[in-house]
């Protein structure tokens, strides 16, 4: 199986990654940095070929909005990483209305361009920096900024040394896509928590290793789509 990750950013800061496999650790095929969504999608298509089979894509960008401006999924992820020990949960998982332009617009553009070339490809929103706390790679003793691909060997096998932070985050987005496609144990689609959301490029999902108990208490784990409700 083949998975793609995108980490939208500005000039030379848009990370992309292609990984493959069915079980962890997945194998990194190729990754890189470009300056915009069009170049990132083109780079991926050059690796996977056209016509392409992509089993899932993870994009580090908000892919849906709540009419009120406050998404419940952001609260859920903030509370989860706070429980995992993140010292600045509010700064890691910000309100959509406070994010920078490239993070918001380029993620949606990438989703649109990829779906145009690979109709029906499943797409999940991803939050790599929060994910690092949830999979216990980031900790009070290891900052997110200090995490390299060497620390992710349980999830992605990489033979290339010195990948950038943007490529690392794109790889984590691809891992989220793998979890979505394989329905990985302990992961779930938290996008269902915002059933009234506005979705520019439907359908999208948001898979994270977060479980909720019946009384709404969040539990971390190691380890349905919202499209119909949103159309």
What average pLDDT do the residues reach? Answer: 89
Q: Could you say which structural class the secondary elements and strand pairing correspond to?
A: alpha/beta
In angstroms, what separates the terminal alpha carbons?
29 Å
| SSE pattern, N- to C-terminal | EEEHEHHHEHEHEEEEH
Question: Rg from C-alpha positions?
Answer: 16 Å
Give me the number of helical elements: 7
Query: Which of globular, elongated, flat, extended, rod-shaped describes the shape?
Result: globular
Described by strand count, sense and barrel closure, the largest sheet is:
6 strands, mixed
Task: Count up the domains.
Answer: 1
Bin the strand percentage. 15-25%
Low-confidence stretches: 223-231
Account of the protein in words:
- This protein is of the alpha/beta class.
- The protein has one domain (2-230).
- It contains 7 helices and 10 strands.
- The strands form 3 sheets. A 6-stranded mixed beta sheet has the order 5-4-1-2-3-6. A two-stranded antiparallel sheet has the order 7-8. Strands 9-10 form a two-stranded antiparallel ribbon.
- The longest helix has 18 residues, at 165-182.
How are the secondary structure elements laid out?
Layout: E1 2-7, E2 14-20, E3 26-34, H1 37-48, E4 56-59, H2 72-83, H3 89-92, H4 101-117, E5 123-125, H5 128-134, E6 156-157, H6 165-182, E7 188-189, E8 207-208, E9 210-212, E10 218-220, H7 227-230
Parallel strand pairs: 1-4, 3-6, 4-5
Antiparallel strand pairs: 1-2, 2-3, 7-8, 9-10
Helix pairs in contact: 1-4, 2-5
């Amino acid at each position: 199986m083949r998975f793609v990750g995108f980490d939208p950013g500005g000039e030379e800061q848009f990370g992309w990654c292609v990984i493959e496999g069915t079980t962890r650790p997945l194998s990194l095929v190729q990754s890189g940095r470009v300056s915009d969504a069009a170049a990132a999608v083109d780079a991926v298509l050059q690796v996977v070929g056209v016509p392409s089979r992509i089993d899932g894509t993870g994009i580090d960008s908000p892919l849906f909005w709540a009419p009120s401006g406050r998404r419940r999924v952001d609260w859920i992820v903030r509370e989860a990483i706070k429980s995992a020990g993140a010292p600045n949960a509010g700064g890691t998982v910000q309100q959509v209305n406070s994010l920078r332009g490239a993070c918001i617009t380029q993620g949606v553009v990438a989703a649109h361009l990829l779906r145009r070339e690979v109709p029906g490809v499943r797409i999940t929103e991803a939050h790599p920096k929060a994910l690092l706390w949830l999979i216990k790679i980031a900790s009070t003793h290891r900052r997110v900024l200090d995490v390299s691909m060497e620390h992710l060997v349980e999830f992605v096998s990489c033979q290339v040394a010195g990948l950038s932070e943007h490529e690392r985050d794109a790889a984590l987005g691809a891992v989220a896509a793998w979890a979505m496609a394989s329905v990985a144990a302990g992961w779930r689609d938290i996008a269902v928590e915002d059933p009234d959301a506005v979705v520019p490029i439907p359908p999208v999902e948001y898979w994270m290793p977060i479980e909720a108990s019946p009384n709404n208490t969040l539990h971390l784990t190691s380890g349905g789509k919202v499209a119909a409700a949103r159309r």
